[in-house]
Amino acid sequence: MQSALVGPSLCHGACVEVDSDTEAVANQGFKLGCISCKMRGEVPATAAVNWYFKASDDDEFSHLYSYEDLIGDVIDPRFYERLDWNGSKQTKDLQDGSIYILNVTYNDTGTYQCRFNRVLMYPNYEFQTNASKTIIINVVPRLTRGMASIFSEVMMYVSIIGLQFWLVVEMVYCYRKIAAAGEEALRESAAEYLAIASESKDNCAGVQVAE
Fold first, then answer.
1. How far is CA 174 from the centre of its chain?
2. How many other C-beta atoms lie within 10 A of the C-beta of residue 166?
C-alpha cells in the first residue's frame, strides 16, 4: 500500500512543466504553479522548495514559504493561515512545488519566486541541482479574458467564415462545371441528331434518284 502512495517517484510518471496563471481574483483562492521536472526521471532524488515574495512596493524579496521532508512552513507573516502546499504529495522527490493562496488580497500583487534545491542520488555519488521560476501576479476585481483567448476566438470565427465562403465558391464552381458539361452534351446530342437526320435525308434522295 505504501508503494502505491509513492508511485510517482518509483514509476517515473510523466512530468510536464506548465506555466502558472498570473491573474488572481480578489477574495478568492489562487494557485501559484511551479513545476520543475527532473532531467533523469529514473534517478531517485530528494528536493526542497522555497518560495520568495516581493510586493509591488518592496525593494527586496522576503522568504515566503518552505517545504522539505513533507513539512511545509509559512514564513512571511502576511500569509499566515492563508497559504497551503499544493504540490507533490507523500514523496520527498518533489517535482510540483505549487502553493495555494486563500482569500487573495490586493496586497498579494507582486513578484513570486519558486526555487527548487534537488539532490540526485546516483549509486556512487550525489549531484545537486537548482532551478527557479519567477511569476508576476496581478490581483483584479474579477477575472478578465486575456488577449490570447480573444485572439483565438476571433481566429476561430474567421476560419469558420472562410471555410463557409470556400464551400460556397466550390459549390458554384461545381454547379457551373456540371451545367457546362450538360450544355456540351446537349449540343453534341443535337449535332449528332442533325447529322443522322441529314444522312437519312441524303439516303432517301439517293433512293429516289435510283428509282
1. 39
2. 10
User: What pLDDT is recorded for position 185?
Assistant: 73
Instruction: Look at strands 23-25 and 126-140 and give their pairing.
Output: parallel
pLDDT tens column, 44-99: 999 999 999 999 889 999 999 999 999 999 999 999 999 999 999 999 999 999 99
H or E segment and range at residue 25? strand 23-25
Cell numbers found for residue 151? 485572439
Model pTM? 0.62
Angle at 154 between CA 149 and CA 159, to 5 degrees: 125
**Cell numbers that stand for 35 in this block:** 513545476
Cα 191 to Cα 193: distance, rounded to the nearest angstrom: 5
**Quick one: cell of 142?**
474579477
pLDDT tens figures, 118-166: 999 999 999 999 999 999 999 999 866 555 566 667 777 787 887 788 8
Nearest one of 31, 33, 38 to 14, comparing CA atoms: 38
Contact status, residue 130 vs residue 62, Cβ threshold 8 Å:
no
Q: Pick from 93, 83, 88, 38: which is nearest to 63 by CA? A: 83
Q: What is the pairing mode between strands 62-68 and 71-74?
A: antiparallel
